[in-house]
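pls design
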């Protein structure tokens, strides 16, 4: 039967079949060899074919359907390897907070670089609205302005007080939404608010099947009551840099991408080259200084990563 992987711990895969039943599967050995650069051959969100072994009732994933897209990060153990966080994603919600904890624009911009590179529409959700007042409110407005003017949808909410959730639920209905954000910003609270009772269910699953494994560091997919799925990515601190050339970085900054053909040099890195359209817009205030500073930082990291790979 066909199904979708909703949880994985590296050796076990929990698959939700089309009729709604959950099946705990292993994968056939051959999957492991297909792409040596991937540390996990099957990821949360993958569509798969499964088969039950008549003799002992165990189940296997026998086939992986082509992915529409996926998000990956560098494997913590092998620099050259990629770990797929989730696949077949319609949109990404980044949960951010102005305070308790503070999400930096650097973090937001790294996330947006990733979603741009994978062509996944991104929304920014500012949570803990109930804690915001005075100074922090002005900060929130300033940051919202940066991202709105680039064209990213920005939302405010309080997951704890269940404020402003309806519109977000509407946006998620019928879609697969990847949820990301620093630990402590309220991802679990948000999931509990939009899927009542979900916590209990996941606890059951992990008790039975994932004893002694690091279940919390893996992405997990939850079904929304009105249809659609949310993928939580606990423990994913940074989506990390993709394997990209330094000259590609500006292609993933939406407001820079639009003017790149106007730079004199087509390999312009927009640092100190003459006749640079990006820098001109920064000076005119049309590209936000903070975005530009974050761009420069990401560019430096990207160069360093490249260097490491050649060393
Ligand atoms: P996660 O690490 O992203 O999953 O964050 P949690 O959902 O565990 O939330 C971390 C802490 O922030 C918890 O103590 C939550 O109760 C709290 N929290 C989450 N959302 C809100 C909110 O909207 N307002 C306030 N005041 N606290 C919140
Ligand atoms: Zn330039």
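designed seq:
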């Amino acid at each position: 039967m066909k199904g979708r992987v909703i949880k994985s711990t590296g050796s076990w895969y929990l698959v939700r079949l089309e009729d709604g039943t959950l099946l705990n599967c292993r994968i056939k050995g051959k999957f492991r060899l297909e792409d040596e650069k991937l540390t996990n051959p099957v990821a949360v969100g993958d569509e798969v074919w499964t088969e039950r072994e008549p003799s002992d009732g165990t189940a296997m994933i026998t086939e992986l359907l082509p992915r529409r897209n996926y998000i990956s990060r560098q494997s913590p153990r092998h620099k050259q390897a990629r770990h797929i966080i989730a696949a077949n994603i319609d949109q990404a919600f980044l949960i951010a907070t102005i305070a308790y904890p503070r999400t930096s624009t650097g973090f937001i911009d790294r996330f947006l670089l990733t979603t741009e590179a994978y062509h996944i529409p991104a929304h920014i959700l500012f949570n803990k609205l109930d804690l915001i007042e005075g100074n922090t409110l002005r900060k929130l407005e300033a940051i919202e302005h940066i991202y709105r003017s680039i064209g990213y949808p920005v939302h405010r909410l309080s997951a704890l007080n269940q404020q402003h959730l309806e519109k977000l639920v509407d946006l998620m209905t019928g879609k697969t939404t990847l949820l990301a954000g620093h630990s402590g910003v309220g991802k679990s609270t948000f999931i509990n608010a939009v899927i009542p009772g979900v916590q209990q269910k996941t606890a059951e699953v992990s008790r039975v099947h994932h004893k002694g494994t690091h279940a919390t560091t893996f992405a997990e997919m939850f079904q929304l009551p009105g249809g659609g799925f949310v993928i939580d990515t606990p423990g994913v601190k940074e989506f990390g840099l993709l394997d990209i050339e330094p000259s590609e970085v500006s292609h993933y900054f939406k407001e820079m991408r639009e003017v790149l053909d106007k730079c004199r040099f087509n390999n312009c890195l927009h640092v100190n080259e003459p006749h640079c359209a990006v820098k001109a817009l920064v000076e005119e205030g049309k590209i936000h200084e903070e975005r530009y500073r974050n761009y420069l930082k990401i560019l430096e990291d990207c160069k360093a990563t490249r260097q490491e790979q050649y060393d």
